[in-house]
Amino acid sequence: MRRRGHNRNSYCLNNRTVLRYALYNNIIRQPNIQHPPSNYRRPRWSNINNEKRKIKNNFSQNINANEINLKIEELKRKIEEKIKERKEFVAANILMDEKCFRSNENNLIILKEDFINYLVEKAKSNFIKKRKLKKQLNDLKFNLEKGNENVLIEDRKSIFNPKSNESILKLPSVKWDKWNSIIELIGKNINKYKLNLKRKKLNTLYDKYEEMSKEKPDKEFMICEKCGAENLKEAIYCHYCGNKL
After folding, report:
1. Phi and psi, residue 148, nearest 5°
2. How far from the centroid of its chain's Cα atoms is residue 93's Cα?
3. Does pLDDT of 79 surpass 70?
4. The pTM is what?
5. Which end of the chain is more exposed for a tag (fewer CB within 10 A), N or C?
6. CA distance 82 to 39
7. Domain spans, the chain
8. pLDDT digits 0-9 by tens, 135-166
9. How many other CB atoms sit within 10 Å of the CB of residue 100?
10. What is the three-state SS of 10-52?
C-alpha cells in the first residue's frame, strides 16, 4: 500500500487498513466481546455507599458487647504503657539542680533564664528557630515527683481559663516528637552548663588574684638611701627625712 505522507499517524492508518482487510477476508477472527445488555445501568455512588453501610451495620451487630469492652480495655492499657514510657524518659533526662532550675508559685519546676539563654546559644539553628525555641523553653513546667512525673505547657487554646496547663505526655506522637527533642536537649546540656559556670567562676577568681598580686613597678618610685621611704620619681628631696635623693 502507498504510504500517506510523513506525518506521525501514517503508520497507524496503514495498520488500521490492514486490519480491516484481514477481518473482511476472514484471515483473522474478530474477538468475542461480550457487550452489556441494553437494559444495563451503571450503579450510582449513592447505591454503592448504601451497600457499604449495610455491610458495616451487619458487622457491628455481629460483634458482641464483651468483645468491644475487651478492645477498649486493651487500648487503654496501651495508652497507659505509652504514657509510662514518656514519664521514664522525662525522669531520666530532667534532674533537679538549683543551678539550672527553680520552683514557681505553683511548686512546679521551670528553667532559669541563664540556662535558657545557654541552650538557645548552643542550638544549631537560625535566628527565627532560636527565638521559637526560647519561647518553648519558657513555657515548659516540670513535676518531678516520683511516680507522678509530668511535663506541662500553657494551654493557649483555652479561652475561659487562659492560665490552665496542658500535659504533653498525652499528646499524639507527631506533637510529642517535637517536645521529646527539646527535653533531650535539656538533659544533654545540664552537666555542660554546670561545667561552664565553674569555668567562669575560676576565670573571675584568677583575674581577682592577678589584680591583688600585681606589684607596683619600681620605676615609678625612688627609695631614700637614708630612711628607705618611697618617693616619686620626680622628687629631689625625700618627703620623710629631707635627704637629697
Report:
1. -120, 35
2. 15
3. yes
4. 0.56
5. N
6. 58
7. 66-197, 216-245
8. 989 888 888 888 788 888 876 655 555 566 78
9. 23
10. HHHHHHHHHHHHHHHCCCCCCCCCCCCCCCCCCCCHHHHHHHH
